[in-house]
Specification:
By secondary structure, this protein is of the alpha/beta class. It contains nine helices and six strands. The protein has a single domain, classed as Undecaprenyl pyrophosphate synthetase. Helices cover about 40% and strands about 15% of the residues.
Length: about 260
């Protein structure tokens, strides 16, 4: 576990929770057992983030592509979501955690939509931390939805296409409601972002770990944040302390970057 400097915390941590199925298979258990154990990891990670004072935590719970999984597994995931929305209610309320959700939520079964809407409404005034669940979510799909809305507004004369900029896109991207991602974590050993918050992760620091999601916890989060704090975030710029080479102009340096 790395040491965490609480004065330099990422403001928005996003996590791709990968490895539930493999965790179960290695123990000769059904995949659903991995998802159930993964719910415990969600609770532990949420508590750790809240204790640290991280303003926003986004969890990739169910992708748009996950609808292609076996129906039995989908049903089990939806059932687990509904159970968690009930069982974790006191945890969210007692710690003043605001629940939010992004994605094509209309595709969720009605029972999940109802419980999700109820808890998001109950917690909407809380300011301790925002926990966002990405459900039926895809980064490309989010970009498509935002582009369609901009095209509609331009067609109807509500906006001038020439005035469309990053701020206009930000306003139509639900994942940006809590700001851009500072730290994107993926468990399970894979090193890709799998269509997760593509727009908001443009300058995110990426952290990959072999640890499977059900084994992830507070110490795992601390290690990810310590790694984040060890990096220098340049956003395409040159560090202030780095001198410009005497025989190289600023234009030449910019082209090199």
């Amino acid at each position: 576990m790395g040491l965490v400097d609480v004065s330099r915390l990422p403001q928005h941590v996003a996590i791709i929770m990968d490895g539930n199925g493999r965790w179960a298979q290695r123990r000769d258990k059904p995949r659903t057992a991995g998802h159930e154990r993964g719910a415990d990891a969600v609770r532990a990670t949420m508590r750790a983030a809240r204790r640290l004072g991280i303003p926003a935590l986004t969890l990739y719970a169910f992708s748009e592509q996950n609808w292609d999984r076996p129906q039995a597994e989908i049903n089990a995931l939806v059932d687990l979501l509904c159970e968690c929305l009930v069982s974790e209610r006191n945890e969210l309320v007692d710690n003043e955690i605001r629940l939010s959700a992004i994605g094509r939520l209309h595709k969720l079964p009605e029972r999940a939509q109802s419980k999700l809407a109820s808890l998001t409404s109950e917690t909407q005034s809380f300011e301790g931390m925002t926990l966002t669940l990405a459900l039926s979510y895809g980064g490309r799909e989010e970009l498509i939805d935002a582009t369609r809305e901009l095209a509609r507004r331009a067609r109807d004369g509500e906006i001038d296409p020439a005035q469309i900029d990053e701020a206009a896109m930000d306003a139509l991207m639900p994942s940006m409601n809590v700001g851009p991602v500072d730290l994107l974590v993926r468990t399970g050993g894979e090193q890709r972002i799998s269509n997760f918050i593509l727009w908001g992760s443009a300058y995110a620091e990426l952290y990959f770990t072999d640890e499977l999601w059900p084994d992830f916890g507070a110490n795992s989060l601390y290690s990810a944040i310590a790694a984040y704090q060890s990096r220098e975030r340049r956003f395409g710029l040159v560090p202030d302390a780095e001198p410009l080479p005497a025989n190289e102009s600023a234009d030449e340096l910019e082209r090199a970057i």
